[in-house]
Automatic annotation (TrEMBL):
Keywords on record: Pyridoxal phosphate
Gene3D superfamilies: Alanine racemase (3.20.20.10)
Designated name of the protein: Pyridoxal phosphate homeostasis protein
UniProt function note: Pyridoxal 5'-phosphate (PLP)-binding protein, which is involved in PLP homeostasis.
Domain of life: Bacteria
Family classification: Belongs to the pyridoxal phosphate-binding protein YggS/PROSC family.
Record-listed N6-(pyridoxal phosphate)lysine modification sites: K36
Pfam family for this entry, one: Ala_racemase_N
Organism: Marinobacter albus
PROSITE patterns: UPF0001
Length: 234
């Protein structure tokens, strides 16, 4: 079995190669190590290998790890799971990014509950890009209104869009899904220039990060290929 450090090395090389092949600037794509279900010791290994950004889906599990790793400086926590609106206070206090905002109510609460002294919370709007019934995320058609309202919230920095396209679709369709998200970001940037940096596309996971980078991803969220296969959900 390869070590977490080895895995980070090979994922980093994949990212570099895909970035180069896409003719994009070196360093323009960041690795978010998705550490859901992983014990804090695994994260320590990743941190020792130089990884600083971790994505977590479940709030209580994340808070436990944040606490366990509080001795380490400069770790950035990204929340990437579904958000219940009664959990926003803890999310606003413990994370530097939230990739999975999909409605105004949650954005308003995160802004109200973020301490101004911490600096703005970076957020992405999650888009249900393949309009799957089972998936979180807003529709593409909701984006203009959401962006103009969220752009006014003082303690949020609207960084961009996130999506989890249906991984079972043919590669050409998957690519098209990434391209659609990139196109949506470009439109928003043109139409709502004051709403926030709008410089981020959070898309691509272990199986499709190359495709996502070819279409403009700036954060790839990688779990399995960093930490190994997750145990099946019971
Ligand atoms: C689990 C998860 C990932 C990582 O998926 P892998 O296929 O293990 O790389 C990425 N994004 C989100 C939102 C996830 O929940």
């Amino acid at each position: 079995m390869s070590s977490i450090a080895d895995n980070i090395g090979s994922v980093t090389r994949r990212i570099q190669k895909a970035t180069l092949q896409a003719g994009r600037e070196p360093g323009s794509v960041h690795l978010l190590a998705v550490s859901k279900t992983r014990p804090a010791e695994d994260l320590r290994e990743a941190i020792a290998a130089g990884q600083t950004a971790f994505g977590e889906n479940y709030l209580q599990e994340a808070l436990d790890k944040i606490d366990a790793l509080a001795d380490l400086p400069d770790i950035h926590w990204h929340f990437i799971g579904p958000i219940q609106s009664n959990k926003t206070r803890q999310i606003a206090a413990a994370f530097s990014w939230v990739h999975s905002v999909d409605r105004l109510k949650v954005a308003r609460r995160l802004s109200e509950q973020r301490a101004a002294t911490m600096g703005p919370l970076n957020i992405c709007l999650q888009v249900n890009i393949n309009e799957e019934d089972s998936k979180a995320g807003c529709g593409l058609e909701e984006l203009p209104d959401l962006v103009s309202e969220i752009g006014e919230l003082p303690n949020l920095s609207l960084r961009g869009l996130m999506a989890i396209p249906d991984p079972d679709q043919p590669e050409a369709d998957l690519r098209l899904s990434f391209r659609k998200l990139a196109g949506a970001l470009k439109d928003l940037k043109a139409r709502h220039p004051g709403a926030g940096p709008l410089d981020t596309l959070s898309m691509g996971m272990s199986g499709d990060l190359e495709l996502a980078i070819a279409e403009g991803a700036t954060w790839v969220r990688v779990g399995t290929d960093v930490f190994g296969a997750r145990p099946a959900k019971s």
